[in-house]
Structures are given as structure tokens and as C-alpha cells.
Design brief:
Blueprint lengths: L1 H17 L4 E15 L4 E15 L1 E2 L11 E2 L3 E10 L7 E11 L2 E7 L3 E7 L5 E9 L5 E6 L4 E5 L5 E7 L4 E7 L5
Antiparallel strand pairs: 1-2, 2-5, 3-4, 5-6, 6-7, 7-8, 8-9, 9-10, 10-11, 11-12, 12-13
Length: 184
Amino acid sequence: MKYLAYIMAMFVFTTTWAQETPKEVKQETQVKTVKYDDGEATTEKKVKVVTRETADVKLDKKDKEKVNQQRVKSTKKVEKMLMVDDDNDAEFDLLTKTTHFVNDNGQYKFTPTNRGFDIAFDNDNNQFVEIGSAWTTQSGGNYIISGEVQNGIGYFNKNGDFVIEYYDETSNQIKTKIYTKGSL
């Protein structure tokens, strides 16, 4: 009976482990040394920028039975961490961390604030333009959205996508805008 329990536990563990979604990860690290003279001495500091892109590996459902399957584009999560080593220890200290997402609809970024987060889109010039803010409500899980284009209610759906429902005056209808997860 004891061996049967071990076999069942091993079966459940390996089955659960095999179900993990494969991810593509690309990481780039740049370290620069900055020297400056403050009038008394020359000081050296190191600045480290780590850029990490992650995306789910998705395959075309039409190629399910084939050996060589085509990949389907998925949303990329891009995290950029800026660190500095300006003290006597060997560790870098984190200054800032930004996250943005890239999908077929362009790039967007959620920046945390003390009341929720700001939403920004890339204006095709690699500069993010803020389009709205999301404030956390007391009911939990819902956000009040205020912006130039969309004013409404936002929430995260079961897939982890951020959904905004807003009233469109030109069409006189309730519309939905979905910011695809990409590992929010």
C-alpha cells in the first residue's frame, strides 16, 4: 500500500509538471562604469541595465499532428531593471523596474501608483504616452478608469487580461477594450 501511494504521488507530480506552459526568454545585460570627479577625488560607480523579454510559446492549432509546427505570435512581456552599485558591497541596488507589453496591437505599459496604475501606449516613436489611470475600488478586483479615450470600469478576466468596459458617445454603445495578458 505504501508503494502504491508513492507511485500515485509520483504520477500526479510528473503530470502536473508536464502541463507547464513553455516560455521563450531573452535576457540582455549591460554594465557601464561611470567615473566622475567631485573636486576631491575620482569616484567610480557601475550602472547595470537588465532587459528581459518573456513570451508564451504557442503553436498553430492547424499543425497539431505535424512534426514541424508553425508558431503563433503571442504577447511579449518586457521588463527593464536599472541597478547601480555605488557602495562597498558586491551587490547592485535596484533603482527602478519598468514593465511593458508588446502584441499585434502595439505596445502598452502599466505603471503602478499608490492608488492603482497608469496605462500608457507606445506612440510609434518608442515613447509611451499616458492614456489613462486605473484606481482600485473598495469592492476589490474592479478599477475605475479615467482617461482621454476610455472612462469606465476595468477588471482582470480569468485569462489575466485587463478588460475595460466604457461608454462610447459616438456609437451610443458600451464597448470593451482588452489589454492582452502576456504575463501581466
